[in-house]
């Protein structure tokens, strides 16, 4: 009897040891830090040609990870872009367009599942620091969308009483900690530093379990503001100073995860919500030669840098020229964390094969450029881009503003139909419709699919599969 009991005890011990060893070998889900800038252009990093200042820490992300050279923000404006990146959907699918303000009665619907919400199903601690801009009524704020912590502002920091153009239209700018307003009219010069410090603290407190941080810096959106430690440090004025402080912020994050020994289990993603607001002149960034800027469906409005670093998983120094978008980040994070995809339909595709070095992978075949309320202004297959005739914003022909005051722009310029070969003409200067009629037909077929699905105000199609945003009546 004793021998049988001893044998059973020995067998149990062996089984438990084996299970323990297997658990040790199973990789834990990676920590994820998504750094989302506001109005940074394609040419605003030293690796993409910035002048008068350097971004060595951001460059390090590219040197030790992957640089996506053909990455597109979900839409060329604040709220819509954020709705897209957090839900994995084209913004118009979830009822978003434009940039909502303090008077808006709409916000991100509780029916939509954000990155934070799906990652919480895998035990992630989640936090949002910085700018939200997806609804300022309590039921639309971050803690109602899967975030454990929030410290930041509910909308853009130019929506405040000190705005030179709309003075007295906006109320005092609130700064939230969780669901409570802790300051009104905070010192915006401290935003980059404060939101970075909150990020560093959250990393330290959650180092022993997986975490997701959405660090949405309000800069370099106007009004530009920088702490004293970086003021006057660049040769590009206040804009360069702001970019240097953002680079410092990235450096602080990289140092923290290295010091804690979680460097090889942390994915850092860095990108921007749209391109630069060009009519602000020396207070705006650079498109790096791409056409137009924020608020347009041309390349300067939506094509921005995207860098990802995950030591030991993403091969170092990769450059990916494949077509990708911010709407692809949610399904990618779901894949690498083992989290379930949202129950409702999304538009993003999984990029995990690309970031792990499979150069043959080509998960995204097309991209739809929507703007205004629901206008399909262009469609692309990555090589060619078909622009449809539409009224839109142009900065061309207008002198830019200076020192925080905007210059003019034409908001209703009539752009014609045109086809651009983005391989040879990323600046979209030469219409080649007559040279590639078969490409035009292929892209028109793709546009018809989009119109049937998501609608198109330009052709009067309401679409079949758009979902309403959250609303308070």
From TrEMBL:
Gene3D superfamilies: 3.30.1120.10, Alkaline Phosphatase, subunit A (3.40.720.10). SUPFAM superfamilies: Alkaline phosphatase-like. It comes from the Bacteria. Keywords: Hydrolase. GO terms for molecular function: arylsulfatase activity. Residues 464-473 have a biased composition (Basic residues). The keyword Hydrolase applies. InterPro entries: Alkaline_phosphatase_core_sf (IPR017850), Sulfatase (IPR050738), Sulfatase_N (IPR000917). Residues 30-338 form the Sulfatase N-terminal domain. Residues 453-473 are annotated as: Disordered. PANTHER family: ARYLSULFATASE FAMILY MEMBER, ENDO-4-O-SULFATASE. Belongs to the sulfatase family. This is Arylsulfatase.
């Amino acid at each position: 009897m004793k021998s049988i009991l001893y044998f059973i005890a020995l067998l149990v011990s062996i089984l438990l040891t084996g299970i323990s060893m297997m658990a040790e070998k199973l990789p834990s889900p990676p920590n994820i830090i998504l750094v989302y800038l506001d109005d940074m252009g394609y040419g605003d990093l030293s690796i993409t040609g910035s002048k008068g200042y350097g971004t060595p820490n951001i460059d390090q992300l590219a040197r030790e990870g992957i640089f996506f050279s053909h990455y597109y923000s979900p839409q060329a404006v604040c709220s819509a872009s954020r709705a897209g990146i957090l839900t994995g959907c084209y913004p118009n699918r979830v009822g978003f367009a434009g940039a909502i303000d303090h008077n808006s009665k709409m916000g991100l619907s509780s029916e939509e599942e954000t990155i934070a919400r799906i990652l919480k199903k895998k035990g992630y601690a989640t936090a949002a620091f910085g700018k939200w801009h997806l609804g300022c009524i309590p039921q639309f704020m971050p803690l109602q969308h899967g975030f454990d912590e929030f410290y930041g502002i509910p909308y853009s920091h130019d929506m405040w009483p000190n705005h030179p153009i709309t003075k007295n239209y906006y109320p005092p700018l609130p700064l939230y900690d969780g669901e409570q307003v802790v300051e009104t009219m905070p010192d915006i010069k401290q935003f980059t530093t404060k939101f970075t410090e909150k990020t560093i603290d959250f990393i330290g407190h959650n180092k022993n379990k997986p975490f997701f941080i959405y660090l949405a810096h309000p800069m370099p959106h106007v009004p530009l503001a920088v702490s004293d430690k970086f003021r006057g440090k660049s040769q590009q004025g206040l804009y360069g100073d702001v970019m240097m402080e953002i680079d410092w912020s990235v450096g602080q994050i990289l140092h923290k995860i290295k010091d804690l020994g979680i460097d090889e289990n942390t994915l850092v993603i860095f990108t921007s919500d749209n391109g630069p607001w060009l009519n602000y002149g020396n207070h705006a960034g650079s498109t790096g030669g791409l056409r137009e800027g924020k608020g347009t469906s041309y390349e300067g409005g939506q094509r921005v840098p995207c860098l990802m670093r995950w030591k030991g998983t993403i091969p170092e120094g990769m450059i990916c020229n494949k077509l990708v978008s911010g709407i692809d980040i949610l399904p990618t994070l779901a894949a690498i964390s083992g989290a379930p995809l949202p129950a409702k339909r999304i538009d993003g595709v999984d990029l995990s094969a690309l970031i792990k070095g499979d150069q043959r992978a080509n998960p995204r075949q097309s991209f739809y450029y929507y703007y205004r309320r629901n206008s399909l202004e262009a469609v692309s297959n990555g090589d060619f881009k078909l622009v449809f005739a539409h009224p839109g914003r142009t900065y061309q022909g207008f002198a830019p503003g200076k020192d925080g005051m905007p210059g003019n722009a034409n908001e209703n310029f009539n752009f014609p139909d045109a086809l651009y070969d983005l391989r040879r003409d990323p600046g979209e200067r030469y219409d080649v419709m007559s040279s590639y009629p078969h490409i035009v037909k292929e892209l028109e077929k793709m546009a018809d699919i989009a119109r049937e699905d998501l609608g198109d105000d330009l052709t009067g199609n309401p679409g079949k599969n758009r979902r309403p945003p959250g609303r308070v009546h």
